[in-house]
Design brief:
5-stranded parallel β-sheet, transcription regulation, single chain, phosphoprotein, 5 strands, alpha/beta
């Protein structure tokens, strides 16, 4: 098993853990900075969620964990959590003075790995490294599973080659080729995310701002998650310079994000801030609307 000190903070791990903290309360931000530095963490602070998102985009793999306040102006912690979940795989810890079960569940639904209640205690900050370690272990397990699948595929190819050689000797080359072609075509159809929109070339770089992502979500909401394809989404968004490849890539990330939130292969809800049938609490935060069998939001 990989030692945590080999990938973060050296042999003195968790010392050196790279933490990004965002909170619009400057006083709280200063206190958290001091507490985290006492834990020997490398701390970066900012007072706006949009600035935190920019730092994460500029410094790829520059942070090990993000700690974000929930209720902030312009972009709240839930929206930041959603965008981070779409674009990068980073443990996010939310915090708030609101310790209600409803608020905690909302953070978990959006993908937070932990929810801290203000004022945050030193003991809680000392233990945030556990979320980083857990994430690394999960990545290692996924890598091992991926390698196992690759080995199985390689074994299948060896068997196919052996069958091919045997079929040539038996004079049944054409039959074997026909059967293999049908099987490979079926596997390609099953594994394709969107047969209407294959893209193998490098995609143009597009920065998905909050406004652009909101347009995307509105378009998906209008079409229904099961019927949303890049071509139709692009037509509804009608954004100059945006290509179908850009939309296809973002749609794939969005579906993966929803899958992680729901814990099943087909998500039954997604975040749609402008949906009129959504449940809005007194602070303007929205619940996830449920989808019916046709992929549309139920009243």
């Amino acid at each position: 098993m990989m030692k945590s000190g080999m990938w973060c903070g050296g042999d003195q791990f968790p010392a050196g853990l790279r933490v990004l903290v965002v909170d619009d309360d400057v006083t709280c931000l200063r206190i958290l900075d001091q507490m985290l530095q006492k834990c020997s963490y490398r701390v970066t602070v900012c007072s706006r969620a949009s600035r935190a998102l920019s730092l994460l985009r500029e410094r790829k793999d520059g942070f090990d964990v993000l700690i974000s306040d929930v209720y902030m102006p312009v972009m709240d912690g839930f929206k930041l959590l959603e965008l981070v979940g779409l674009e990068m795989d980073l443990p996010v810890i939310t915090m708030s003075a609101d310790g209600s079960t409803n608020a905690m569940m909302k953070g978990i639904k959006h993908g937070a790995c932990d929810y801290l209640i203000k004022p945050v205690r030193m003991e809680e900050l000392k233990n945030i490294w556990q979320h980083v370690v857990r994430k690394k272990w999960n990545e290692n397990k996924e890598l091992e599973n991926s390698c196992s699948l690759e080995d199985s595929e390689q074994q299948r190819r060896v068997i196919d080659e052996a069958e091919y050689a045997s079929s040539v000797n038996d004079g049944t080359d054409s039959t074997w080729r026909s059967q293999k072609k049908k099987r490979d075509a079926k596997e390609d159809d099953d594994g394709e995310l969107d047969s209407e929109d294959p893209f193998a070339s490098k995609k143009p770089l597009v920065v998905w701002s909050v406004e652009l992502h909101q347009q995307f979500v509105n378009a998906v909401n209008q079409l229904g998650i099961d019927k949303a394809v890049p071509k139709k989404i692009l037509e509804l968004m009608n954004v100059p310079g945006l290509t179908r490849e850009n939309v296809a890539s973002h749609l794939q990330k969005f579906r993966l994000y929803l899958t992680r939130l729901s814990g099943v292969s087909h998500p039954s809800y997604f975040y749609s801030p402008l949906e009129p049938n959504s449940n809005v609490d007194s602070l303007g935060r929205l619940e996830f609307p449920m989808l019916n069998a046709a992929g549309q939001i139920s009243p």
